[in-house]
Every structure is written in structure tokens, then in C-alpha cells.
Amino acid sequence: MAKKVIFSGIQPSGELHIGNYLGAIQNWLRMLDEYDCIFCIVDYHAITAPYDQKELPQRVYEAAVAYIASGLVPERCTVFVQSDVPEHVELEWLLGTVTPIGDLFRMTQYKDKAKDFAQGQSVASGLLCYPILQAADILLYKAHGVPVGEDQAQHLELTREIARNFNRRFGEVFPEPATMLSEARRILGLDGERKMSKSLGNHIGLTETPEQIWEKLRPAKTDPARVRRTDKGDPEKCNIFTSYHRFFTPAPDLERCAEGCRTAGIGCIDCKKVLFTHLRAALDPIRERADEIRGRRDYVLDALDQGARHCKEIAARTIAEVRAAMGMVPRR
Ligand code: AMP
Ligand code: TRP
């Protein structure tokens, strides 16, 4: 029997970080054997927010390097760049005809990002239509599941609604994709206040050097009640513990740090050193692999070409089916 299809994507809007890793990529890696996996670098999405066009090509390339270095290798899954398959945009337009505009204005990501547009500058309509494009990404491959962090749950609810609206109006074409949340649903940034995000500068990059990581980790906020080394703390109130230790540090060390925090038996810096060791165990191999493949442009670009060719085949079939269902004449 054919494997079920999984689709997900990350925007090439900056360096990939450990929030992307825990919230998305780590979950994807666990699915490689069981599912037919398609992972996209969503550049059409990335251009809906203010960006530097000179930097975009390099960001797309670095995202591909990070995907492959993390283990999303072309032998085990499909990796491609969204704009290499323009059918995404065609389907977005077609789905736009069954998407209520009120639903788009309701999206929290839209409301948050609309604020980033400079005062007096009107918000681009592409930002409003962003979730329709996301629905198109997923429905183009008739994906059964979409592994993402919690911030994408609302977009996926809308994707299911768009699929239902389409099917009701034009006949059963699309399955309703399931939201597959990771255990690490929402990783906070080093500021301990906001979601870790490429644009906020509160992140630990997936391919940063150990020196760069330690420089950020050392001064990062812990439990505010621990002012002095001798103050007892509560690991549940420490962002370093709840956001990072919990996911990178294995049980015996994790418990030792939690207990040490409660009894003031371990200082915050020593506790961070334990985390740093385990962070390195996870990230060093990714960085080393990235350093190795970054210069092999042919290998990276071939992987993306192979991915795009595979996706184009599926996309062309779905578009033909959708056009027929909608009563549009077949392409000659
Ligand atoms: P983005 O970087 O916004 O393109 O997000 C790509 C994927 O990473 C999506 O599945 C997000 O839900 C996930 N993600 C991004 N930031 C975080 C975070 N701070 N915590 C957990 N998941 C995240
Ligand atoms: N909107 C997603 C994000 O910001 C990225 C994305 C675009 C995506 N298309 C997708 C995620 C399709 C999953 C499936 O994280």
C-alpha cells in the first residue's frame, strides 16, 4: 500500500534556529520511514514580509543546506523550493475563490505581521492571502498530515475548511489534512518572553559555532528569583530549563539540574554548562555536516532539482483534476 503523504515547510526568512528544529525538523526526521515526506522551502511565503532581495538566494540555499545537514537527505525524502513549482500559486488562486475573506482577517499570524509594516504603509494583500497559499502547498500533494509547531494550528484549521468548502462546491477532491504537533510546541527565545523567531534576534541558530552559542546562552535569563548563587530556584519558572534543557538534556542530567536548582546545589552557569554539552551533542553533527556540504553546490542544487521534478509531476495531476472539477477547459 502507498505510504501516506506528509507535507511541511519553513520560510527562508533567516537562519534556521532550534525552535524550528524542536518544533518542526526533529518531528519530521521521526516520520521519514513511515511516510512519504515532502519538505518545502517556502520562498513565496517569505516574500510577504519585508525582506532584502539581495539576501534571499543565499537564505534559500542555507535553508537547503540546513535541511540536508539535519538528515532530511534526498535519499529519504523530497526537499524542494516552493517557487520551482509554480502550480502552488495557481492552486492558491483557485482556492481563493472558496475562501471567505473574513477568515483571512481573523488569522493571528496576519494580525501580528501586519503590525510590522511601517506606519502609513499599507499592508500587502499577499500577507492576507498567505494562508491560502499555505493551504495550496498542502492540498496540492493531498497530504494526510502536516507536522508543525503550535503557531501554525490556526492556518491548518483554515486549510481543512478550505478543503471542505472546495469539496462541497465541486466534489470530493481533497482529503482534510491532520495537524501533527510536536512535543515542543512553542519554544521561547533567549529573552524568555517571546517565541523564538528569526526576525526577533532571540534565537540560537542551528549551525552557529559552539562559541557563538555559549556567548548567547551564558547571559540568558533564568528563574528571576535566583539573584544570588545561594538562592533557591524553580526550574518550571526558568526559561532555560523549560524551553531547552527539557528537550536536549537526557533524564539523569535533567533531574540533577532540576534538583540542583530547587536546592541551590547548582548555579545557573553550571546548569547552563550541562545544557551546553547536550546542545552540542545534538547540534555539532548538524553544523559539521552543513560545513561539509555548503561548498558542494552541485550536490545541494541537484537535490533541490530532483525534489522539484518529483513535485511538479504530482502538482500537474492535482491541478488537472481541480481544473476539471471547476469546469475549466483542459490545457492543450
Ligand atoms: P517558520 O520559521 O515560521 O517558517 O516556521 C517553520 C516551522 O517551525 C513551523 O512548523 C513552525 O511552527 C515551527 N516553529 C517556528 N518557530 C518555533 C518555535 N519558537 N517553537 C516551536 N516551533 C516553531
Ligand atoms: N506558514 C508556515 C510557517 O510560518 C510555513 C509554511 C508554508 C508551511 N507553507 C506550509 C508549513 C505548509 C506547513 C505546511 O511556519
Radius of gyration: 21 Å
The main sheet comes to: 3 strands, parallel
Bound molecules: adenosine monophosphate, tryptophan
CATH topology of the largest domain: Rossmann fold
What is the count of helical runs? 13
Strand content: 5-15%
Distance between the termini: 33 Å
Protein structure class: mainly alpha
Q: How many domains, as an integer?
A: 2
State mean pLDDT (0 to 100 scale): 96
Structural features, described:
The chain has 332 residues and is mainly alpha-helical. The chain has 2 domains: 5-188 and 296-325, 3-Layer(aba) Sandwich (Rossmann fold), CATH 3.40.50; 210-291, Tyrosyl-Transfer RNA Synthetase (Orthogonal Bundle). 53% of the residues lie in helices and 7% in strands. The chain has 13 helices and 5 strands. The chain has a 3-stranded parallel sheet. The chain has a two-stranded parallel ribbon with strand order 4-5. Strand 4 (145-148), helix 8 (153-170) and strand 5 form a beta-alpha-beta unit. Helix 3 (56-70) packs across helix 12 (268-294) and helix 9 (210-217) packs antiparallel against helix 12. Tryptophan binds next to strand 1, helix 7 and strand 4.
